[in-house]
Amino acid sequence: MPVFEIETPVSEIIERTYNVKSFRFASPTDASYKPGQYLFITVNSHRTGLTKPLSISSSPTEKGFIEFTKKLTDSEFSRVLKEMKIGEQIKVKFPLGSFTFTGEYEKIAFLSGGIGITPAMSIIKYATDMKLKSSIVAIDSNSRIEDIVFKRELDLMLKENTNLRVIYTLTDSNRDLSNWQGCRGYVTRDTIKTNIPDYMERRFYLCGPPLMVDAMTKLLMDEINIKKENIILENFFGY
Ligand SMILES: Cc1cc2nc3c(=O)[nH]c(=O)nc-3n(C[C@H](O)[C@H](O)[C@H](O)COP(=O)(O)OP(=O)(O)OC[C@H]3O[C@@H](n4cnc5c(N)ncnc54)[C@H](O)[C@@H]3O)c2cc1C
């Protein structure tokens, strides 16, 4: 797949949560990518070379635009994105990476943490739009309800895609969760065994911050004997 390097205006900005925004730009007509791949985004700033790798959160089935979604922190890169207006230029290099799924396996499972949902979102949207037969279970771990990035979109896809199950778990134990229907606490061996009883038959896709991805890899390999070749990683290491 050819790699594109383009300079393009941002065409749409979508507020996802209090600290997460999605940014869209027009997809070049000859560009293609696989669901789950990532891109390099360079923003304009008084400092040169403000570039970060970010997963594509749209699906190739969504025509006309490509979307990435950033958790906005206090960094310079995030500050530029927070203040970004429609029409401002960004540099984009894509598509990159092999954290992809287009129906190769009958059964897969995602374990995502926080903003790590982005490549899973791309893949789940693709599987739903393409009406793939593959069974997908996603366990999405967040601190609090307001941190769940694509809850509305995932809940809508659950109605459309009978091969999809999404389990949310919240880890902030200081919150009153009396009205919360989902799971609580960090993902453990029991979370997986209870929610994914056929876990031995699945490919696991892990995506999120390095600490979470490392902990999940250990859990899968050491505690429930998943083989390394059945684990696919996207590690959101700092850049
Ligand atoms: C393949 C891949 C895909 C990825 N996909 C995504 C994605 O889809 N979405 C996403 O959000 N991230 C993604 N990441 C991670 C992303 O590239 C960034 O590393 C990450 O988002 C942190 O960026 P940052 O803006 O917080 O900057 P960083 O510079 O990494 O900041 C790290 C921390 O330091 C603090 N900090 C930095 N500078 C300052 C300052 N001047 N003052 C005060 N505090 C400061 C920030 O608040 C932040 O908490 C991906 C990474 C990889 C490798």
Helices and strands, with pairings:
Layout: E1 4-17, E2 20-26, E3 38-43, E4 50-55, E5 65-71, H1 76-83, E6 89-96, E7 107-113, H2 117-129, E8 135-142, H3 151-160, E9 164-170, E10 183-184, H4 189-195, E11 203-208, H5 210-223, E12 231-235
Parallel strand pairs: 7-8, 7-11, 8-9, 9-10, 11-12
Antiparallel strand pairs: 1-2, 1-6, 2-5, 3-4, 3-6
The chain binds flavin-adenine dinucleotide (FAD).
Task: Give structural attributes.
239 residues, Rossmann fold, Elongation Factor Tu (Ef-tu), domain 3, 22% helix, globular, 5 helices, binds flavin-adenine dinucleotide, 35% strand, 12 strands, six-stranded parallel sheet, alpha/beta, six-stranded antiparallel sheet
Could you walk me through the main structural features you see in this protein, from its secondary elements to its overall organization?
By secondary structure, this protein is an alpha/beta fold. It has two domains: 4-96, Elongation Factor Tu (Ef-tu), domain 3, CATH 2.40.30.10; 107-235, Nucleotide-binding domain of ferredoxin-NADP reductase (FNR) module (Rossmann fold, 3-Layer(aba) Sandwich). Helices cover 22% and strands 35% of the residues. It is built from five helices and twelve strands. It has helices spanning 76-83, 117-129, 151-160, 189-195, 210-223; strands at residues 4-17, 20-26, 38-43, 50-55, 65-71, 89-96, 107-113, 135-142, 164-170, 183-184, 203-208, 231-235. Strands 4-3-6-1-2-5 form a six-stranded antiparallel sheet. Helix 5 (210-223) links the parallel strand 11 (203-208) and strand 12. It starts with a strand and ends with a strand. Residues 38, 52-55, 69-71, 73-78, 97, 115, 118, 234, 236-239 line the site of flavin-adenine dinucleotide. Flavin-adenine dinucleotide binds next to strand 4, strand 5 and helix 1.
